[in-house]
Amino acid sequence: MDFNPEGKTFPILKLPFLPLSNVLHNFDYLEMLDFSFVSKKCQFVIQLIKSDFEICLNFQRNRSPKKLIAIIFYRRKKCIFEFLIDELNSRKKYLKRNDESTQSMDDKHMIWVDSAKEWTDYICGLFQKELNYIYLHSDGSIQEMSDISEWINNRQNALDYCEFSGEETNSVSIELFFQKAQFSIHNLSFALEQPYLRKPLPFEALDLTELSFSSKTWKKPITWITVNDIINLNYRRIVMGVCQFSENDINRIIKRWLDGNNPQMEFFTVALKPLNFHLVLDGIEFERRDRMDKIMFVYDFMGREECHIFEGGYDIRGKDGTLATIQQIRSFHSDTSKFWFAMAVWPYNKFPYKGEERSNL
């Protein structure tokens, strides 16, 4: 059906800003992008519109429905729109950029990476947003990881979330990514099929809040994170998959916290074989709670609200009097021979506890 048979135009840019804004809010994000190419004024109008979403650059093809590199808009952690880089490249002439560097590249994948960075810069600028998340493949080349790290250095001071995932792992390129990074990463996640990375990874410089480590399979436990890593890191929350920490390792981690190491720690959990708590608590003062004394610890992790329920457990206090509870009762989902060891620091609980004994925590 022809909705405009006489070919009449609508003078949209002559509208006052408020009705113009209402019109543009009925555009989808690709239509807004196309509108911005019309003129500098159109671009400026889009920049003035308030937008409620976060921006992710995704290099993990398995996360994209069409298995392609994409820029994704999230709202409250749900995908609301996706720009595919190969579709955006059909509009690249409108960017009016110098393509000499891209034309000289022989590596087709690096041409896509370069395009992804260029489009991310334009889209972030158009919607007046920072890049919030980046999903990276764990077997990225040295050039790819180096270029991406240096590109983020030049555009912003921090990332909310960075993830490495994949069946293969290029340890050298991941190390180089962190060595070159001059930006903070608040939430860092590794989901690796390969059970190890070469050391060291310079986590200390990243201003980390949360870390997630998983090997994707219980048959290949995490061996590339050591007890010294856990002790030396300053973090709030860590969730690890199956690893091989012993009772002595857990005892060292607890004692360092009791002595005041990493006072901002809120929650630490790792999947382990059943522990002998006589060894875990060796040299530590504790109070054993009754199994019927259930208490919920609620915390934020990777943008979600999570919950761990303690059924009894062992209460311990740091030298400053801060109370924490440790326990190991919940089985690991893919291996019933492993259980989650959990340590929660109660002043950071988001769920107010109503019990008499802990009412002032």
From TrEMBL:
Residues 9-62 form the F-box domain. It comes from Caenorhabditis remanei (Caenorhabditis vulgaris). Pfam families: F-box, FBA_2. This is F-box domain-containing protein. InterPro entries: F-box_dom, F-box_Sdz-33. PROSITE patterns: FBOX.
